[in-house]
Specification:
With about 260 residues, this protein is of the alpha/beta class. Helices cover about 35% and strands about 20% of the residues. The longest helix is centred in the C-terminal third of the chain and has 21 residues. It is globular, with a radius of gyration of 18 Å.
Length: about 260
Amino acid sequence: MLLKPNLKPNFDEFYSELYAERWTTLKQSLLADEVKVQRSCFAGHAHYFMDQASIRAAEALRVQPGDQVLDICAAPGGKTLILLERLQGKGSLIANEWSRDRRGRLEKVIEDHVPAEYRQCVQVTGFDGNQFGLKKENTFDRVLLDAPCSSERHLLHDDPTMNDWKESRTKQLAMRQYSLLCSALLALKPGGTLVYSTCSISNLENDGVIERLLKKKSDSVILDSDVSDLRDLEKTQFGFQIFPDCAQGAGPIYFSRLKKIKN
């Protein structure tokens, strides 16, 4: 698609350029109702409704019992439940959420869906995610950064500013995401695993962020693309994506798994 000189693309033009002829069907799938599954992470507790694609992203961290885990942007809490399920009551999890309102929702999800004996493993905090790299360097075995993003599916459904969308929106978010990703990497122990995920379909916020990290921090981080279950996953240059037009309504989710090789 060729745009006139100095003419900034609107929402449809931007994503049409990214996805070409696929954009029509992809947009239709984004406009359709979300498909969620019931997941009970702990026997005897209420089911939590979440996107199957989000479960895949959380499971990609491969948490093991005894790990010290950080979930930097944890609300609303679905991925946090998956991480706690994997810990099996051993180790620790910091579930961090900067927004007070969203943090309240996170605390309620943990209270409603996690047995008391397992809640002892989790601490809910409310810091700016950039603080972890400064104050908790080389602390965690595994870090999940489910970064704030464009969330185009929700944007299409209910954002009154949709008509005012600008390309600068996704560019600004990518800058924030990169800052949080650098913090996550600093907080990770050498040899530890980091999963970066978004629910965006903008390449600027997905592979673009990972590419920048790999270029800037090539001496301290490498990709870990070993995924045994490729079901519904579409490989990108630096990660994986699940799109609702090809995954029975699940997604969208992007995730990339990284290994820290030294400080």
